[in-house]
Amino acid sequence: MGIPDEKIHPVATGVAIKTVEKHQEPQELVFYSGWFCPFNQRTWISLEEKGIPYQYKEVNPYKKEKHFLDINPKGLVPAIEYRGKALYESIILCEFLEDAYPSHKPHLLPVDPFDRAHARIWIDHCTKTIVSATHRLLQSQDKESQDNAREELYAAQRKLAKEVKGPYFNGEEFGLVDICVAPWIARDYVVAEHRGYKREDASKEWKEYADRLSQRESVVKTMSEREHLNVIYDRYLRDEAQSEAAKATRAGREIP
Ligand code: GSH
Q1: Which of 57, 82, 112, 195, CA to CA, is 20 to 30 A from 155?
Q2: pLDDT band at 248 (very low <50, low <70, confident <90, very high)
């Protein structure tokens, strides 16, 4: 008998299933994807943005099936197989795509070494502060903890918005900082509906940036229907989710 999180809808839906259908042919790059996962969406957005040929394979990471553990021993999506060799971890995968397909645009990281390092500081900020505060806000059950988490989230978003050159983090070219945060923006309707969150309460600049990212074509075409996402988020909102990220948040640990 497995955990309830295993019973997620088996496939992508809505606009995302159309994207999946276009990527069924065998390719040297196989993308092991969980349609629902925001970390996964980072890699999926990068593949779509850069127009890299890939074969999409759906995985339910909660089942921890042997074939998938052989690809990613952590048992988490996203993962890829490139020319038969496996890699995992969303940001590492995005950086790999940049390195392995250097002529494919947009360039996810700036060329200038200082700008590249600066972008990495804010990539780290996205995961360590925005993603973790979002999880605390989703999973907190009492008003005081929710209020604190919402304020932490606003502060983290405000800080990032101040660094955005515009229209994207690094200027004209959509890049890895944008990609790292976009999946959580695309899902912020959950905290808006259930936790009193409003984009404009972070800052005017954040709202403009968030509105822009949520409308980006690669973000839209990798999002499934809310109806199926909501089943998953309802478990987070009741603090019953058993994902590694949910367990870490509950225990006050960093998200793995
Ligand atoms: N640090 C990982 C990354 O950035 O790739 C996190 C990936 C992750 O947590 N993926 C989730 C997963 O596979 C789905 S959103 N969960 C399965 C589990 O928690 O057992």
Answers
A1: 112
A2: very high
